[in-house]
Amino acid sequence: MTTSLLDTVGEKLKAKFGEGIIYSEQQYDFPVFTVGIHSIYDVLKFLKEDDEMGYTFLTTMCGLHYPNHAGKEIGVMYQLHNMQKNLRIRLKTFVSVNEPKVPTVTTLFPTANWMERQEYDFFGIQFIGHPNLKRILNMDEMTAFPMRKEFPLEDGTRDDKDDKMFGR
Amino acid sequence: MSTKNNTNIATEQEKEYTTLNLGPTHPATHGIFQNVLKMDGEIVMDGESTVGYIHRAFEKIAEHRPYYQITILTDRLNYCSSPINNMGWHLTVEKLLKIEIPKRVQYLRVIIMELARISDHIICNSVVGVDTGAMTGFLYIFQLRENIYDIFEELCGARLTTNIGRIGGLERDFTPRAWELIDIFIKKFEPALKEFENLLIRNRIFMDRVIDCGPITAEKALAYGFTGPNLRAAGVDYDVRVMNPYCSYEEFDFTIPVGTNGDTYDRFMVREQEMWESLKIVKQAIEKVKKEPAGVFHADVPEFYLPPKEEVYNNMEALIYHFKIVMGESDVPVGEVYQAVEGGNGELGFYLISDGGRTPYRMHIRRPCFIYYQAYTDMIKGGMLSDAILTMSSMNVIAGELDA
Q: What's the predicted TM-score (pTM) here?
């Protein structure tokens, strides 16, 4: 059933947004669509507001960081749920690390408010139009974005935890 | 007529609001929560929540640990029902690895999870009682939570942060003593919960205090991403156990209680009823376990499930697998999974990206508390300060889950 969901939703999205849908794949029980940054807001709006779609519930969203994907280092994952038909889909969009700007979806889903603040806090993703974009879990004085891959887990100056055999 | 000197009623412009700092360590908030409230007398006009006081960077730490070492991080999310979090993580990894879990193990897990749900709801509901001034119910029912912790102690050696189960099954079978303790608990729990309900649910003082306190509509609750008992109290019958069953929940006969107003009383009643449903599920699971072949407590996946210690010393294969698992050298498929379980507070989801390495490439936890707590200031606006306290305790916001 879920494989057909990939096709049905995929066809609809391709028909409506064409080039905006970059890639689609099935990951276990989830259809995953990679959407261009310029279309992401419209795609989410369409999925939420179109009568046939009805993906009205934003389950979760999270930031991603792939340092090796040049020009598309920073990503955002959205996971939507159509509660009436019990269908779930996942969307992804990628932007450059030099200009990590993503349109906010707080106007569509109020719950995205803190989720976006969290991803700003950890990945430095600028959500354009967010009403209150500031750090949420880390302290306000922090300058780094700790979930990015280059940020070390531990203080590099410590030598008491060095394990030559297995690494840390 | 000059109003300025003759009356105490101030006009809108000259009204002075008081800023009240509720928390971070306020005895009535049961955890580290800070809310800066704008007060007009005793009425809450506006507020801002500050979260992150016990942030421990679980998602970052998880990127540096082999899969089996992440279970202990999940313990510390919602520490009132850590077995559910543990199982959620095991299920996520098992989904990634496509491990088939034997039925008996699934039923044993259901018993553990439902006991954990009962202990979670005991805490929340009895604390709602305490916050309204009813200490007695709390004292009656908290003994039963102790009994659940005794069961967990018998099963895994720990009481609060359980680290229960392993990827592929459970670390050991239920002992005869554990079955005995579960029987004792079931016998003691029914009358105790009835007594607790007699004290509160038709109690006029309690009802006057909690009805219409911190209500939320279904539309708003969905927009704010509510899940679990708080969403069901608003009248939406969404439960992960029914919508996306895991651990064979589809085989069990239970109902999802729903409320209508989404106020403190409804949240209290939904949790109350859920405890009865959980008890029903536990009883059914015990019957189901009896029909399964005895002694099965893990799947046959030697490359991910640690062999018994005596075999490690005497058997070459077991030694190799032991080494591979402990060093995190077992091959993991590339892919991404999302697995949700119905936690004590709602949909607890784990989103895991594997690049085939020994640690997750990225792990994100959908923490229900974090998502619904953002509605808190909206819910207490226009109410009394004392209602704000009750709203928070009835929403069951757990600091560990909120701050990850």
A: 0.90
